[in-house]
Specification:
The structure is a homohexamer of 224-residue chains.
Chain A: E1 3-5, H1 13-17, H2 19-22, H3 24-30, E2 42-43, E3 50-59, H4 65-72, E4 78-84, E5 91-93, H5 95-103, E6 109-115, H6 118-124, E7 128-133, E8 145-146, E9 150-152, E10 155-157, E11 162-166, E12 169-173, H7 178-200, H8 205-208, H9 212-217, E13 221-223
Parallel strand pairs in A: 3-4, 4-6, 5-6, 6-7
Antiparallel strand pairs in A: 2-7, 3-8, 3-11, 9-10, 11-12
C-alpha cells in the first residue's frame, strides 16, 4: 500500500512561475474561488512568496521518515506538499531536512503539521507554510506514500498540481487548469490598476460597481 | 430590516485621538476593565496603533457587499468595525477596499472575520485587526446593516463609540464615557513613571504596593 | 495551602547557560524527546533565545497577585514559569511587572496565560512565551503558591529545573539531568555540521542514513 | 458600576409561552434568521424544551456570587441568562443554586460558562444550556450586575427579552418583536404540514419550490 | 463549473450492506487504518448504525440549496455525503429535507457542517453525523455540485464509495476495495471471539499476543 | 527510560470507595478546589460513577502498546489513567482491551486521548472518560512507562492516587490526603440537606449565606 511514484507530469513551468506575481488571493479568485488551503496554514516567517509544482507525501503522526523519501523525487522548482493521515502538530521538518530538499531544488514546504528550527529556516531563506510551529521530535518507523493524491489542510492536492503561497496563505491549481487560471488572473489584474486609482481618488465602490440599484431593489433603506 | 444610518453622533475627536498615546491596556483599565474585544483579534502586522470613532457594519458569512456601503458613511478619523452574523473566517477585506476606505478617511479596520492582501495592506500602512488571515474570496449577494449596534468579538460596539487598537488588541469605549475614561487614563499614567523608576531600582511590588500584610492575613506562608 | 518556598536548589549555571546555544529542538531531542511545553506557547516577539533556572508560581484565572510574590524569589539568571489553576488568557503580565522582575535578574517569563504591553516588552528586550496576547486586566485577590511543582502548558516544571526557550517553543530539563543533557546535546551537534555539508552537496538522507534497506524491507514500492 | 435593576418590563407571557411549541429553529427563522446564540451552547441533557423571559446577570470568570443576587429578581416563568466578562468554563451552577432558582419560578438557565451536578439537575428536571460541563468550583468575591443588557454566546440579550431553548440550541427574541415573531412562526408552520406530506410522498423540493428554473439560469449543468 | 452527475457507479449493495454488522472501527482497521473521517463528526443521537453508498454534494457556507438538488439523485440504500467549500456550522439540514431524502431512500446524512431539528430527526429515525448541531438557518443562492469527489471532514469521498457510520464515527471505503475490505473485516472478526474469551478469562494480551519478548528487546524495564 | 513500577502504594480502599457517593464536584471542593482534570474529559456514555486507585501509563500518540503492559499491573478496584506524551485523539482503547482490563479488576479508564467501540463498552458497562471518541486505530511500536507520575488532562496523577469520575468530570486526590478529603466531603455534605430544604422553600441564598451586607459594602446598588 506504500508507494513512491517516480514520474509525475508537471505543468509548463513558465506558466506556474508566473503565479508568484499574482499572489494567492488573485489566483484563488481567478479559478472561481476554489483551491485555498485552510487558513490555519501560516508562513513561519512573513514576506515569502513562492509558486511551483507539487510533489506530495503522506506522513503519519509523529513520523517524518517519508520526507527523506520524497526528497529524492524533487526536481528544481518543486514545492513539497506534506499531508498527514491524522491531525498532528509535531515538528516534522527542520534545518537539516531543509538543507537537503533545498539542495534538490525545492522552493518551499507546505505541511499540514508542525515545523521547527524556525530561526535557521528564516536565515536559510527556505519558506514553510505549516499548521503549527513545534520543536516536538519525530521518529522514523512507518511507511507512507509519495506522489499520490493527498488531502492537505482540507484541499485535494495531486502530484504535479501548481502551488502558490504567500502571506495570505496557500492555494492549489489543478495542473490541467494552469494556463486558463494564468489567463484569468492576468485579465483580472489588468483591470485592478484603474479601479485602484479611482477608489484612491475617492470614487465609491457603490458607484464604480453600480451597486446602488441592486441594493435598493433588495430593500436597503437609508435613515438620516 | 437592512438599514443604513447616515447620521451618527461622534464624540469629541480631540478626546478620542488622545487614546492612542495611552494604548489599549491602559484605556481598558481606565474604564474599569471592560470593553476589550476577544484576544483572538490580532493585528495583521505588528506595530500599528490607532484610535478613532466606530462606524459599524453587520456582514453575513462569505459576503462583503456591505463594506462598500459602509465606505460611503466614513468620515476622516473613523475606524470601521465589522461584525458577522455567524462565525466565519473568509477574506472579506483586501487592498482595493482598503484603498477606498482609506481615501474616505478611515484609520483602520476591526473585523470579526478574515482579511487578505496582507503584504499590500502593510505596504499601504492600513492596519487591520482581524480574527483570521485568509485569501478566501467573498460574494456580494446579501444585505446587512450599517451603523447599528453590533457584537464584534464578544463586545457590543455602538456607532460613534471610541475604538483604540494596538499590538495588545482592541478596546471599545462608550461615546458618553470618552472624557471620563481619558481623564482616568491620564491619572493612571501620571503615577506609572514613578512606579516604573522604583521597580527598575529593585524596589519590590510587595513593598511599593504594601502587599505583605494582606497576603499574610490571607494565610500566605513562607518556608525556608 | 498557599506557600512560598524561599530556598530552591539551582543546577550549575554554567551548564544551563550553555543550553541557549543549542536551542530548544536540540535540547528536546537530547533528553529523549521529552519536556517540550505545548506548541501553543509562543514568543510575543520573534528572535529571543534564553535559558535559565525555573522559579515557579501557580496563579488563579484573572489574578496576577502572586507574580509580585515570586518577584522577590528571583535570582539573576532565573526564568519565571507561571502556571494557572484553570485555563485563562487574561493579561497577567505587562511592562511594570517586567521592569520589576528584570531588575531582580529574571531573563524572561513563561506563562500559561496571557501577556500584554507587547510593544513595551519588546522595546525593553524582555522576552515572554505565552498562551495568548491579551490586554485583559487582572485583580489581586487570591493566594497561589511559589516554587512548588507546577503543570505549565502540559508539562511538569519543578523549581530549579532548567528552561530553554526560543522561536521553536519552550523545553524544560530536570535539574538532575542538566549535565547529561548538555553532553548529549553537544554530541548531537558535533555530527550535525558534517551532515549538513553532505546534504547541502546533494547527498540524500536515504543514502547518508542508510534508509533504503529498511524501507524496502517494510515493503515500500517504487513505481515509474 | 455594579447595579441590580429590580423592575424590568416583561412581554406578554401568553405570547412567549407559545414559543416552546414552535421550537428554536422555527423562531429563529421567523425573526429573519437572527438571535441565535453560538452553537457551542448545548443542553446538559437531551429532550428539554423551554421558553420564557430573560433575567440577565453578568458574571466574572470563576465567580458565581451574582447568581445568588439574580435569584431574588426571578419571577415565575423567567429564564436566567448568565453572561461572562471573559471566556471561562468553570462550574458556576449546581444543584443547590438550581433548587433556589427553581423555587423562585425559573424555568431554566442559559450560561456562557460551565455547569456541574449534571446528574442531579437532570433528576430535578431543571434544564441548563451551557458552554461546558465542569465541576470546577467558583468563589464569591466580585460584583457583577443584574438585569443589564449582556452579550451571551455572541448575542445581545436584554432583560425581558424572550428566550427559547431546545435540543437545537438557544434563541433570543427582542421583547418588542415577540408578537410579530409569534405570528410569523405560526404562519410558517401552517404551511409546513402540507409541505411535509408532499415531500414524504416523494415530491422533490426541486419541483415543490420551483427551483429548477433558477438553478438552470445560474448555469447548473446535468451530465449523464 | 457547477455540475450534477446523474449516473454514478455503485458497488454491489450486498457487499456494502454487510459493513453495518462490522462497524466503523473494524472496517477502518480492515482497510489498513485509512478512510476515517475526522472525529469531530458525531451522531446527532446515539445508537444509529448504517452503511450504504455515497452520493456526494458540495455546499457553500450558509447555503443549503444543493441539498434539494442531490435529493433527486438518491437511490434506495444511498447515504448523502455533504462537504463544504469552507468551514461552517450552520444548520443546513432539518426535518423537511430529512422527510424528502428519506422518501427517496436515503439511509442517513454525513455533513461537514451543522444540522438542526434534532428532536424531530430522532423521532423520524433518520440518523445524521455532523460537525455541529445548530439551528442557524441557511439561504438558497449559490450553486454547488453533486456527485463529484469531495473532501468531507478531511477525507476524500467519491460518489459511489461505501460509507459506514455508527457511534464511533464515519469511515469511507473506496468502491473498488469494497469486497476486499469486507473479506478482511470478516477474517478479522472471526478471530475476535476467541481472543475476547481468553481476555475475559484473565489471559493477558502480553501473553496472548507474545508481546513480552519484543518489549524486553526494546528495553522495557520492570522495577519492584 | 521506559519502566514499569510493579509495586505501588494504594490508599485504604474503604476510604477511596466512599468517594463515589460524594461525586466529583464535592470531592473537588472538599480538597480546596484542586485536582480537577480539564473539562474536555467527558464520559463516553452518561450515568457512570466510579472511584478507585490510579494505575498510570504514559502512551505516545497513535500507539497503544503500553495499555497491554499496564493491564498486568491492575488490581481489583484500580482505575487506569492513561496520559499521552503529545496531544492525540486516536482510538487507543476498545472492547478487547476493555475485556482484558475489566477481567483484571479495573473499574474504568481515564484517557487523555480517544476511545472507540462506544456501543460495546456501554453494553459491557465499562465506563471511560476520554478527550475524544475516535475509531482511528493505533499501532504497537513504541515503549512508554507504567506507574510513573503523569500529566493527564492538565493534572498531575501519581500511581496510587485516588480517582473519582462521574458525569461532571474527573478529579484526582493525592493518596496522602484521601482520609482528610473524605472527612471534609462528609462534613460538607452534612450541611447540604438543610441548605437544600431552605432554598427549596424559597429562602434566598442572599439571606441564608448573609451575603447582603458584604455585597452592599462592595458597592452593589439596587435600582427600581
Amino acid at each position: 500500500m506504500s508507494v513512491v511514484y517516480r514520474n509525475i507530469p508537471r505543468p509548463d513551468r513558465a506558466v506556474t512561475d508566473g503565479f508568484t506575481a499574482h499572489g494567492v488571493a488573485t489566483i484563488h479568485e481567478a479559478q472561481g474561488r476554489t483551491g485555498l488551503l485552510a487558513p490555519y496554514m501560516r508562513p513561519i516567517y512573513p514576506g515569502a512568496k513562492i509558486s511551483g509544482t507539487a510533489v506530495t507525501v503522506l506522513l503519519h503522526p509523529g513520523d517524518n521518515w517519508m520526507l527523506h523519501v520524497v526528497a529524492e523525487q524533487i526536481k528544481p522548482g518543486d514545492i513539497v506538499v506534506a499531508a498527514l493521515s491524522a491531525p498532528n502538530t509535531d515538528g516534522f521538518f527542520g534545518d537539516l531536512l531543509a538543507t537537503s530538499v533545498k539542495a534538490r531544488g525545492a522552493r518551499g514546504l507546505i505541511i499540514d503539521g508542525g515545523c521547527r528550527d524556525i530561526t535557521e529556516l528564516k536565515a536559510m531563506d527556505f519558506p514553510v507554510w505549516s499548521r503549527a510551529i513545534s520543536a516536538k521530535g519525530t521518529i522514523k518507523a512507518t511507511l507512507g506514500s509519495v506522489n499520490i493524491p493527498v488531502v492537505c489542510a482540507g484541499m485535494i492536492v495531486n502530484p504535479g498540481d501548481a502551488i502558490v503561497a504567500d502571506d495570505d496563505g496557500v492555494v492549489v491549481v489543478n495542473a490541467a487548469d494552469a494556463q486558463k487560471v494564468a489567463d484569468a488572473a492576468a485579465a483580472r489584474e489588468s483591470f485592478e490598476g484603474e479601479k485602484r486609482a479611482k477608489l484612491a481618488a475617492g470614487v465609491l465602490g457603490l458607484d464604480m460597481y453600480k451597486f446602488r440599484e441592486p441594493l435598493e431593489k433588495l430593500g436597503l433603506k437609508y435613515i438620516d
